[in-house]
Amino acid sequence: MRAVPAVMHRLLHRPRSWVPVVALVGLFGTFAVMMLTDTAKQIGAIGLAPWVGLFAYDVGTAGGLAVAGIGLALWIVATDDQGGSLSALTIAIRVAAFLVFAIGSSVVGRRMRESERAHRTQMGLQSALIDSTLDGICLTDVRGNVLISNVPLRRISVEVGLPPTGTVPDRLIAIAGRTTEPDRYRRRMREIAEQPMLASEDEFELQGSGRVFRGYTAPLSDADGRFSGRIWTLREVTADRELDRLRDAFVAAVSHELRTPLTSISGFLEMLRDEEQSLGEAGRMYLDVIRRSTERLQRLVEDLLLVAQIEAHRLELVLDTVDLDEVAAAAVEAARPTAAEKEVDLRLELDAAPPVRADTDRLAQVLDNLISNALKFTDAGGEVTVSVFRNGGFAQLAVTDTGVGIPLDEQGQLFSSFFRASTAMRRAIPGTGLGLVIVRAIVEQHGGTIDLESREGQGTKVTVTLPAAEDAA
Amino acid sequence: MKRRVLIAEPNAEVRRFLELTVERLGYIAIAAPAAGPPPAVDAVLLEPAAPETRSLLHHFGGDVPPVVCLSVYPREAGLAPPESVAYLVKPSSTAALGHALRTILDH
After folding, report:
1. Are A259 and B90 a contacting pair at CB < 8 A?
2. Do B72 and A259 touch (CB under 8 A)?
3. The pTM is what?
């Protein structure tokens, strides 16, 4: 008794359950046809079977069989209403024909049902997957309309104050006035909106709240490679930025504090120089160790402070027209004693490089760091070559060594703070992992680029490209 | 007559090093008083990062002698008082320190 209301309930309240509705309408339609002529009764009776199958698909095999029984009885009765009796063979053939149709339809229906269930399961998993990430994610069509979005994105959109409607670029531009750098933010969003194939990763901070978000977008292509929309992700990175700020403040504070004891150590070391001759051989050796360690500590402090400046975008350059040949020659001369001590052949090749607009001291620091690295990683008998030359409208300098090289899988991390290549760690080559970070920052601030090629066991070549002075203006 | 240099440096060891350096250069080193007005001097060697040393300059009134800053912070930190004529970052070499003082006192 409860089965019928349950079936009716399912029919009435499952918006996507169109199958039983169609099946029932089909059943009644077929019965109506069976009320007509004998031929129509035959056609209608055969036509009954698929509806039974469809009904079985949705309400289950038992319900389907019940309807099948009713249909079969009606067919037999309907075709025997002229008083004649049907032979057992005819009934058997009709029963068999009916069952083939009904069972066939039921099997097809069941497969459809399983397919639909699998599809729903897949969709559920995909929703769970994108909803359970911390990032807000959405896909948009070619015009920027949202096709799909996840729960975190909808939550972040409300928190950030994005308008609820409109294309994603328009909604993002609408909050430009709430960011700490509205002009830069607006310009960037317009670039993204106007350049379909542009991939972009940007951060923005909301005024007042100090909340920082990192957005990423990239174009999507269809099977033919045509632009078909975009993926957008949005993540709150306030905590990350706060940690960065704390770390930078800590490093800066420690580095500044280290300068005070370094002042007295290096100062008194200088004073001891006058007394050095009165010391014994062992005393002079100890003094050398203290002096080298102090210099190393001093360099570390300077590097840490410089990296803090770079990361806070506070590195300032004093630009002048600089002869790169002169800077390179001076750097090579300064490094000759170290090269001689290590028995490494240090060469300089100058080939009419154009002057560049640069901060001489910072450029010298780039060369010192690169040459120092090359010498550190090259064994006795090896070569380090510093070459400076023109390449079109650019001046290039390359530092090439025949040293230990860097494993391919580590080369991508070489410009990350404090990263040290495994080849350096294995050989206990001293360093802080800050040199290349500083080099790249200085080069990029000059509008230049830096490239690195390396093969483990064969050597490394670092090439710095800077705009020539006439083009840099 | 020997020139007098007031040393306003909060760290005792650095202060001692500065006193020795100043004396080796041929000047008289005078330690800044813990409180009260400083004596009349020809130059001040100052760590501007320490509040107590900066407040010392107020005691000179409108007649502050030339100031050489020797600081743990770079010039960009904006700590240098208006009277500073040279700015060195620690650890500075004795040569750089000597050059700064001689420029003020011997020219």
Report:
1. yes
2. yes
3. 0.57
